[in-house]
Structures are given as C-alpha cells and as structure tokens.
Amino acid sequence: MTCENVSHLAQRVRHFVEQQVLPREAELGRCDAAAARLTAQLQAQAKAEGVFGNFYPVADGGRVASLVDYLTVAAEEGRSEFAPALLGCDATLDCHMLARHANPSLRERFYLPLVRGEQVPCYAMSEPDSIGSIPATLNSRAHWQGDHWQLTARKWFICRAERADFATVIARTDDGPLPSALSMLVVPCDSPGFRFVRPLALLGRQQGQGEVHLEAVRVQPDQVLGAPGQGLALMQQRLGLGRLLRAAHWLGLAQRCFDALCARVHSPRGAQARLADKQLVRARVYRSFREIASARGLLQDAAAKFDRGQANAIEVNLAKLAASEALSLTVDSAIQVMGAEGLSELSPLSGIYRGARTTHILDGTDDALISTLGRDLLEATQPGVAFDALAPSVHLHGKGAP
C-alpha cells in the first residue's frame, strides 16, 4: 500500500472512531447484553465501511502490508480503548500466527472464518499456579492417547475468554527439555470438557478477562499449530508481534489524552485559570509530548526491524515499555490538569487511567522486561562482542528474531 493510501485509510479509521465509537464509549463499557449488541452492530458497520481487519495478512483481505505502515493506522484505531475490538484488531495476532503456521485443516476451520470476522479467538497461556514469565512452570498437560491428545489445563486472565469461539492453548506435550516440550493446541471453546469458569475484573473493571478450565479435552493431531514441540518458539514469536501491536494502540490512546490535556488548557475554563501561564502545566505538556514522541520513534525502529525479519528483542521490549510509560504519564497529566472532572464519569480519562495501569502488567511485566533488557544489553556489550547501538539485538544469536 502506498503512503497516500495508508494516510487515506488512517483518515477513514479516525473518522469512524470519532463519529461512531467515541460517542458510545459509555454504552460499550457497560459489559451487558446491550453493549454486546452495539459491539456487533459497530463491527458490521466497520466491515461495510472497509475499516475492519486492516493489518490482517494482505493475501486474505488485509489492507496494510508492513508493520511500519500500519503504525499510522493503529494510532487512529487506538484512540478509543474499545475501537481495537470493534475494528477486528483483537484478532490480528491470531490471524498472523495461523497464516504462518496453520495446516490446511486449521486454515479452513479457524483461519478463514477469523479473517472474515466470523469468529473470536483467545490465547490461553497464564495459569494460577505458574509464573507467567517462566514457561517452565506451566502445569497444563496434553497426553498422547494413541490417535489424539488429551488436554487438561487451568488458565486465567485470558482475554475474550467468555465470548471466544476457539482458544490457542499452551501445554506441555513432552517431558523433555523445555525448547521441545511445549506445544500450541487450537481448541474450539465448545469442545466437551472446555468450561468458562468466571470473569476476572482488572482494577474493579470488567475488561474481558476470564478463567477457563479444560478437563480431558480431546484434541486431534491436526489441531496442533505448527508442529508438536514448537510451542516455546511460537510463544516468543507471538510475544514480539503482540507487544508491538499493543504498543501501537497505546500510543494512539496516549495521543488522545495529550489532545485532551491541551484542549483543557486552551478552553475557556483553562483561560480563566490561566493554565497556559503555569510552569507546572507547561512541564506536563512537555513531558507528555516527549514521552509519546520517544515511544513512537522506538516503535518505528522495532517495526522496521520486524518487517526486515531482523532480530529485535531489545527493540520490541523497549518500545513496549516506552509506550506504556507514555500512556500512563499522559493520562495522569490530563487528569491532573482537568481536576475532579477527570476522575469522574464525566470524562473518559478515569477508565483510560485504569487501563493504562494494566499495561505495566499485560504482555510482560515492567520488572521482568527491564531485567531481561538489562541482561540482554550486558550480553551484547560483553568484551569481544561488536556492539551496535542501532541494532543491539542482532548480537544476541537471533533470540529476538520474529
């Protein structure tokens, strides 16, 4: 897609979000039957207007071929915390994983309905009794029963768990070394033994997370994504792209908060309070803009390396952390300048604020990623290694390759 076409698509997405989504955020946030009907209505409208599934694989209907180009569109999709789901973005990562690794059966049964917007996916990795950042602690098991796998698992904090049509489940399929012990199994959510247990609120707010139990679920050999034993490698691949997609939407939301911050300063009430003359307000505007611009640059760098197939673990984690920090700082500044109104239901900022806090946990906690980055940077700069500050991950023996 040419730059002009990407720009035009971004404008159409922005128009849809501004006109159809932002005025209905209060309704969409209620998580009831009416919200579900409105979601279906807006998804149908997004498909009709050609703004649904923008970064799906181009061969199957996607509109943007490169991640670098998609960032412009993603920034507009991310202006509402509800828009990514309405525009099919929640399925983007599953679409790319299935496009790359699905066998013909999975492609026909799950991938093609997914790109048509007919199914909802979820990804089941986290477990109550394991450490999310340590795959070796996963307890889910799939035992081979002669002609099929029998899967038993307990998973929680699973996005879209309650309304998903199928789940990609991480489970141990071998007792050997971890690199060949895990597999990704694609399981319909209506399979016998698959049970949704409960929704799990985040900071007192329902955001689509839930817990599921799988008890002796029958999984056919052709329901393995890739090949048995490739689960760890596919997890790393999925995390890399997933963090970049999330970061792109977070920056769209951060930009909306920055716009709200500046709008309040320039408003009649802001003029009455002489906000533009206050040094602390100016400092908040400066820091917010700096964090967004810095995160955007890091994200563009990571996306360019992703498009080239270049190892980019350091760049991906930097971009994820920076986007999270930019969103948190900017929404906090907007609330501070807006005052009590920013804390209330009269403004979307309170909901965005709670969502921003979750970004420091989802897709890898800040503490875990910072520790990993420190380790990787020390490895890349050890004596005898030619360190390239512009592409540090290429020295990590391909560990960050997408």
UniProtKB/TrEMBL annotation:
GO terms for molecular function: acyl-CoA dehydrogenase activity; flavin adenine dinucleotide binding. Keywords: FAD, Flavoprotein, Oxidoreductase. Gene3D superfamilies: Acyl-CoA dehydrogenase/oxidase, N-terminal domain, Butyryl-CoA Dehydrogenase, subunit A, domain 2, Butyryl-CoA Dehydrogenase, subunit A, domain 3. GO terms for biological process: fatty acid beta-oxidation using acyl-CoA dehydrogenase. Residues 8-118 form the Acyl-CoA dehydrogenase/oxidase N-terminal domain. Pfam families: Acyl-CoA_dh_1, Acyl-CoA_dh_M, Acyl-CoA_dh_N. Residues 122-217 form the Acyl-CoA oxidase/dehydrogenase middle domain. Residues 229-377 form the Acyl-CoA dehydrogenase/oxidase C-terminal domain. Its cofactor is FAD. One of its GO terms (cellular component) is cytoplasm. Homodimer. Belongs to the acyl-CoA dehydrogenase family. This is Acyl-CoA dehydrogenase. It comes from Pseudomonas parafulva.
